[in-house]
Design brief:
Elements: E1 3-7, E2 10-13, E3 18-25, E4 33-39, E5 46-51, E6 58-59, E7 67-72, E8 77-82, E9 91-98, E10 106-107, E11 111-116
Parallel strand pairs: 2-11
Antiparallel strand pairs: 1-3, 3-8, 4-5, 4-9, 5-6, 7-8, 9-10, 9-11
């Protein structure tokens, strides 16, 4: 059974940083496409960053140069380093895993990120 558990969310000032973690079990993340999504109140869920088993990571335009997705294969953990945070980054952040990118079958419970100006 695949389980994804996010942590690291919280409150930050604009311009600050947070690092989200997603601890995975039941899946070897280096073999899967892993992604971070976010959903703000009243808005649709959006894909923020993706890292596949091969190839370069994908980033949503609005986070390019500020966010970095990475994984520690030994710890089977996915990360999202978020720098230069903006109030519009405020959302619930979820990690997801899938055999193929854009086809995710497992989701975490989410971690809240709140950025104040």
């Amino acid at each position: 059974q695949v389980q994804l558990v996010e942590s690291g969310g919280g409150s930050a000032q604009a311009g600050g940083s947070l690092r989200l973690s997603c601890a995975a079990s039941g899946v070897t993340i280096r073999l899967y496409c892993m992604a971070w999504f976010r959903q703000a109140p009243g808005k649709e869920r959006e894909e923020v960053a993706t890292i596949g088993s091969v190839g370069s990571p994908y980033y949503k335009d609005s986070v390019k140069g500020r966010f970095t997705i990475s994984r520690d294969n030994a710890k089977n953990t996915l990360y999202l380093q978020m720098n230069s945070l903006k109030p519009e980054d405020t959302a619930m952040y979820y990690c997801a895993a899938g055999s193929y990118c854009r086809s995710y079958s497992a989701w975490g419970q989410g971690t809240q990120v709140t950025v104040s100006s």
